[in-house]
Amino acid sequence: MFSGIIQATGTIKNKRGKGDITELEIECFPLYEKLQIGDSIAVNGVCLTIEGKKEKCLFVSITKFTENETNLGQLKIRDVVNLEPPLILGDKISGHFLTGHIDFKTKISSFIKSSQTGKIVLDIPQNYRKYFVNKGSIGIDGISLTISEIKGNRVEVNIIPYTIENTNLKYKKTGDIVNIEIDILAKYIDALR
User: Fold this and answer.
1) Which CATH number do you get for residue 129?
2) What does the pLDDT look like over 101-120, one tens digit per residue?
3) Structural domain span for residue 187
4) ∠34-70-166 over CA atoms, to 5°?
C-alpha cells in the first residue's frame, strides 16, 4: 500500500532480459539505505519487489504482462522513474491510498508547464470514465494528484511547481506514456452496486 507521495526519483542504469522477465537496475541514492531486499517499492506507481541491492542501485524484475500493461516496458537507460517505499502502519497519509496495481496506461494529450503551475490533460478509456470525478484522486506514475476538471473522456490535472520539480514530471512532455491507477475506493463502491 502506498500514498502517492513520491519520496525520490531514480535513474534506470541497466535493463536486461532474463528469460520471461526483465531486470531493471535503478540508481537510487536517497532511499538506498532504508530499503531492504524483499521490500516492496512503487516504481512509476507499479508495486515491485526489491530482489537485490548493490552500489546504491536496486534490482527489480518485471514480467511480460507488466511490461505490456505499464510504461515500465518502454523504459530506456537514463530514464527517470518515481519511487515510493510502502506505507508503514502509523505513517502519515498525505496523498490517497494507492495499491501499486496499474489500471491502464495512456498518452499525455497535453502538458503545459509555466513558472507557476503545470496542467496535464489525459484521455481516459470509456470503460474507465465512471471512476473519475471532479476533485477526485488519480494516480499518475504513482503520484497522488487531484482531478481539476473532466470534459467528456478527458481528465485535467493541475500540478504545482514542487511536484513537477521533485518527480519525473520534470522530464515528461506531451505524447509521453504514463501509468494510471484509479482510486481504489471508487472501484469498491462500483463493485458493491
Assistant:
1) 2.40.30.20
2) 999 999 999 999 987 789 99
3) 104-192
4) 45
